[in-house]
Amino acid sequence: MRLLVDSASLWYRAFYGMPESISSTTGLPNNAIKGFFDGLARIITRYRPDEIGICLDDNWRPQWRVDLFPGYKLNRLEADDSAEDAEGGEAEPDLLTPQIGPIIELCTLLGLHPISVEDQEADDVIATLANVSTDTSIRVMTGDRDLFQLIRLPSDVQIIYLAKGISQHDLVDGKYITTRYGIPADRYGLFASIRGDASDGLPGIKGIGEKGAASIANSFESMDAVIEAAIAESDLLSSTHRKRILADLDYARIAEKLVNCRTD
């Protein structure tokens, strides 16, 4: 079994989940370092992978996605700017960034294979590795539900989903997707494209929420098919959904490419 780790997801959770008082003998913060390797060790102990890949963002806001949709993750840039410009003095010191380099260095020393690709996010690296790994099962360690879309791949892929923490994590498979969202397991990407994701600055199709997105994903396999049905006034779409898709057609045409992880 091959374990692919969404590194940023893990070190952010480690940093915010461990007290800042945890520091080295020289007084430097190392709560993220400790939390990262503690969490990773617990997952390794439980799943016993044969190989481990530590997947990194070369660019967390890659230009090709920004070119498709300039608002992609713009909310995060604006949040950073607001923190810097906050009234009442300087922003809080960045205690996480100085810990990232040591995490990557330690992973390398431990033979854990840090992997990145120019102008790609870790999600795209993970998806590509999962897509080509037909010779072994894949477990993806992440707190990001975007990667639920990998359940559609021909490989044996399951997501070690950390939203509830390391000890209470969910193991996401096709049954989980169908039970949780009421959609076919291989259509999470389409569902997410329609629903949107506020954390990434993605609005989805305006006026169609999670329930509507699930209804559409149950009837269609791709956004192209959804758009074609909307234009043709197909009865498979409600009149409300049809009108909202046509009103937001420019976004609908780029949504899947924007949301889907690259697998090439």
Q: Can you offer a commentary on this structure?
A:
It is a single chain. Helices cover 47% and strands 9% of the residues. The protein contains 12 helices and 6 strands. It has a 6-stranded mixed beta sheet. The chain folds into 2 domains: 2-172, 5'-nuclease (Rossmann fold); 185-259, Orthogonal Bundle (DNA polymerase, domain 1). Strand 5 (157-161) and strand 6 form a beta hairpin. It is α/β, with parallel strands linked by helices. The protein is globular and about 65 Å long. Helix 1 (7-17) packs across helix 2 and helix 8 crosses helix 12.
Overview features:
264 residues, alpha/beta, Rossmann fold, 6 strands, globular
Quick synopsis:
Helix content is 47%, strand content 9%. It has 264 residues and is of the alpha/beta class.
Q: What summary fits the major beta sheet?
A: 6 strands, mixed
Could you state the CATH homologous superfamily of the largest domain? 5'-nuclease
Strand content: 5-15%
What helical percentage do the residues reach?
Answer: 40-55%
**Roughly how many Å apart are the termini?**
21 Å
Task: Return the CATH class of the largest domain.
Answer: Alpha Beta
Low-confidence segments:
86-91
* Radius of gyration, in angstroms, nearest whole number: 20 Å
Give me the number of helical elements: 12
Count of domain modules: 2
Oligomer: single chain
Number of strands: 6
Secondary structure elements and pairings:
Blueprint (H helix, E strand, L loop, with lengths): L1 E5 H11 L13 H17 L3 E5 L7 H6 L5 H11 L12 H13 L4 E2 L6 H11 L5 E5 L14 E5 L8 E3 L1 H8 L6 H8 L14 H10 L3 H9 L7 H9 L1 H11 L5
Parallel strand pairs: 1-2, 1-4, 2-3, 4-5
Antiparallel strand pairs: 5-6
Helix pairs in contact: 1-2, 2-5, 8-9, 8-12, 10-11
